[in-house]
Amino acid sequence: MKTKPIPLVLRQAEALAWCGQTSWNRGREYMRSMTGLTVQPSTAGHVAGDAPSLRIAGAAYGQERYELWATLQGSKVTGARCSCPVGGNGRCKHMGALLARAAGDAAAFAVLPALSEVLGALDETALRDLIAALVDAEPQLLAFVIARSARPPTAEAPTAELGAVRMAVEAAFAAIQRMFDPYEDQEEGPDDRALWEAMHGADRLLRQSASLTPSQAAWALEVYIAVLDGVEETYSNMDLDWGLDDVQAHAFRAVQQLVRGGHLSDHARADAIETILSEIASDRGHLHEIQQLHAFVEALDAGERQVLLTLLRDLMTRAAHDFQRSRYARALAELTANDNNVSDKERETLLRASADIPALADFLLKRGQLQAVRDALQNPQLRVHLPSLSPTFAAHDQLPLLEDLMSQNLEVAGIREWLFERYVQTQRRTGAHALALAAVKGRPSAFWLAALKSVSADWNSERPDIIARIWKSGQYTSTLMAFLLSEELIQDAIQLTAERQDVPAQQLVLLADALAKEGQTQWAAALIERAAQQGIDRKNRGGYQEAAEILGRLKGLLGAAESRAQVREIMNRHPRLSSFRKALEEAGLL
After folding, report:
1. Under the phi-then-psi rule, with left for phi > 0, alpha for psi from -120 to 50, and beta for the rest, what region is 368?
2. Region 226-254: what's the mean pLDDT?
3. Claim to verify: residue 40 and residue 159 sit in the same structural domain
4. CA dist 574 to 537, 580, 586, Å?
5. Is residue 420 part of a domain?
6. 369 inside domain
7. Rounded to an integer, what distance in angstroms lies between the CA atom of residue 316 and that of residue 406?
8. Cβ(261)–Cβ(212) under 8 Å?
9. Owning domain of residue 146
10. How far is residue 380's CA from residue 356's CA, in Å, rounded to a whole number?
């Protein structure tokens, strides 16, 4: 079969946007050792009018051979996967190597025809033979074949054998239990791809739910119930409680959608509701998805709704842990929020048990129970973040109460900042100044230094004392240096760099820029060298690249010839650092 040239165009920026700088850098050691590099057109998920898709693939060698692929849409990476233990999301170092190779050496990729083109050339007999040969070579593929074999009802074939559906799903789970070793494959988890294949037909029906027939709805329901049963059985048989959660969540939401759609027969609807209740009772009910839960409950009649509420109350009563109890209580509180049959006492009990502090505060504030609010928010077991309650208290015109509560918990994160803004907004400048000054004296930061300046009555007089206090502590070098630079106290910044060796590289560069503007080029060059040395001292590829980038500033400062001589002198002091030399060469500095 003759193949046409394929324009493989991947810019480094797009590759980095996908895999990140770290994977890109670490992947360089694998670039040249990769084998089996291929590129082919891809039609999977392609939409008419979109840029053509390409699939690039190859093999990398680490502790073992790893297969990897990536999909390109135009010049962007849209999906990727590697078979290494951390390559499930396609952002490992091996993927960095594949993308770097594609960006820098497209000619190394052998061109393959599109899979649709290859399969289109085979008749039915040849396709059957091919599938049989593939299953013989890779037995785990049998689960994929069986998963796709169950056909949903259509206009031409209005009924479907539900037993075939369950067999297809059970085959996928059997493959998982046969192939997955929970001790060897802990990082990747079970291979659930055959399960998604098993749900493919049901998902397609669900996307056109408005036109579902009862037989199609029943067929889809059987698929999803079989998946939920399989997850429970697999977790139980293999002593697992992780790895299939995404599959379970997808099937659970789909069953809820089928109930809401109204296409199920009475018998099928009863099965669907029983399944949902069973998942909730097994602690896999996704009760935190409140909108989804509300939409489901709205589709229930009064009796069905009461069964659900009774189950939640029973689960809350029997819960062994507080976090479980709070989950059921919160769901109950949400579902009964507009129920006139629930008393204030019962609702308050639910809100307290739910640990939904904004809802509890709103409930108590509406009833004017201010002391109860104080008691609730001062309960250390609630672990409430007081600043987040600002909208609730503001809605009841009770911000002074919240302010009083916060003033008793100044060491809690975010409270000083909230109080400072509150004091400023209410024209209490003295209180704001005292708060900012205490924060600067305790643990200075850029925020509090700027805040103090904004409310100081005489900043020029106050500033020297602040600087002296921070300087004397011997700590907070980065904060102090940033402050001196922001205040344009260049001579003080120079003195700090002379006294302390822990000034960060980027601040040294900023100081060098300031000195260069004043014409002090030699001082500036010395600071640039010192900043670059921090990268060299890290003794890794990233540090060498950072050092080279910093040293590149010498060209604009000293001129081409003098900067090149200076860089050579620096390199001569580190003759054994071949990676550093390479970074300098790539930056054009040698």
Report:
1. left
2. 92
3. no
4. 10, 8, 17
5. no
6. no
7. 32
8. yes
9. 122-286
10. 14
Each residue's pLDDT tens digit, 158-212: 666 777 888 889 888 988 888 777 776 655 678 888 899 889 999 999 998 788 9
C-alpha 85 chain-centroid distance = 18
Residues 17 and 97 placed together within one structural domain of the fold: yes
Q: How far apart are CA 464 and CA 470, in angstroms?
A: 10
> Which amino acid makes up residue 232?
E
Q: What tokens appear for 379 in the block?
A: 């309960």
**Total length of the chain:** 590
Residue 363 is assigned to a structural domain of this protein: no
Contact 527, 497 (CB under 8 A): yes
The pLDDT tens digits of the residues spanning 85-109 come to 787 789 999 999 999 999 989 999 9
Whether residues 222 and 246 share a domain: the answer is yes
Place of tokens 């060498």: 544
To the nearest 10 degrees (0 to 180), the angle between helices 490-499 and 477-486 is 160
Rg (CA), the chain: 33
192 and 246 together in one domain: yes
Which two structure tokens, joined as six digits, stand for 305? 């709704």
162 and 270, same domain (yes or no): yes
The SS3 assignment for 573 reads coil
Nearest to 537 by CA among 487, 574, 508, 510: 574
469 within some domain: no
Number of domains in the chain: 3
Hey, how many other C-beta atoms are within 10 angstroms of the C-beta on 566? 19
Distance from C-alpha of 494 to C-alpha of 305, rounded to nearest angstrom: 72
Residue 383 has pLDDT above 80, yes or no: no
What is each CA distance from 395 to 318, 344, 414, 488, in whole angstroms? 36, 20, 21, 44
The first and second tokens of residue 470, run together, are 């921070």
Residue 451's identity, in one-letter code, is A
CA–CA dist 212, 218 (Å, integer): 10
Indicate the DSSP class of residue 110. Answer: E
Beta partners for 485? none
Of the candidates 15, 9, 14, 39, the residue with the CA atom closest to the CA atom of residue 28: 15
Q: Of 266, 286, 306, which residue sits at a domain end?
A: 286
Asked if residue 159 and residue 114 are part of one domain, the reply reads: no
Query: What is the rounded distance in angstroms from the CA atom of residue 116 to the CA atom of residue 102?
Result: 23
Distance CA 302, CA 268 (A): 18
Are 217 and 180 within one domain? yes
Q: Encoding tokens for residue 95?
A: 């993927």
Res 276: pLDDT: 97
* Amino acid at site 134: L
37 φ, ψ to 5°? Answer: -70, 125
Please give, one letter per residue, the 3-state secondary structure of 496-551: HHHHCCCCCHHHHHHHHHHHHHCCCHHHHHHHHHHHHHHHHHCCCHHHHHHHHHHH
